[in-house]
Inverse folding.
């Protein structure tokens, strides 16, 4: 004959297993398909007229900007890959405490349409083809300016 503590232990184990199965089923139902994800490579740079040259991690960005902007040095402050979800806001912190807010609105053959907000600097919708950089000025910082490069990087 089973003791009451043994029965309680079996009931507790059965409830725990049921909870694990229910959680797994719920997770499978609510998981976002890969098509609803937009991975982006984000680079935050500081440009200035001070000496220092171009940070090797920013060479591609320098090639894109050197004909449009005047600066002597460019250094990478932040570089990260952000896995955004369609119609949800993702953020990247700037060194001055502000946050770049990015929200993918639409993904199609012409790229990703994304709402981008840099408080105090810019608020816009921009379309970026896959593997193409969109560069946004993020305002003054220290002895120069901040710029943010957002590059969709999916399939």
């Amino acid at each position: 004959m089973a003791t009451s503590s043994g029965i309680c232990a079996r009931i507790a184990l059965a409830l725990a297993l049921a909870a694990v199965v229910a959680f797994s089923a719920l997770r499978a139902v609510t998981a976002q398909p890969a098509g609803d994800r937009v991975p982006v490579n984000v680079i935050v740079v500081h440009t200035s007229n001070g000496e220092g040259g171009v940070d090797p991690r920013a060479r591609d960005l320098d090639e894109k900007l050197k004909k449009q902007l005047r600066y002597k040095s460019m250094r990478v402050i932040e570089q990260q890959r952000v896995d955004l979800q369609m119609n949800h806001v993702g953020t990247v912190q700037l060194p001055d405490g502000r946050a770049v807010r990015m929200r993918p609105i639409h993904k199609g053959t012409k790229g990703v349409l994304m709402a981008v907000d840099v408080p105090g600097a810019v608020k816009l919708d921009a379309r970026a083809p896959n593997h193409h950089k969109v560069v946004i000025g993020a305002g003054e910082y220290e002895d120069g300016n901040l710029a943010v490069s957002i590059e969709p990087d999916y399939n």
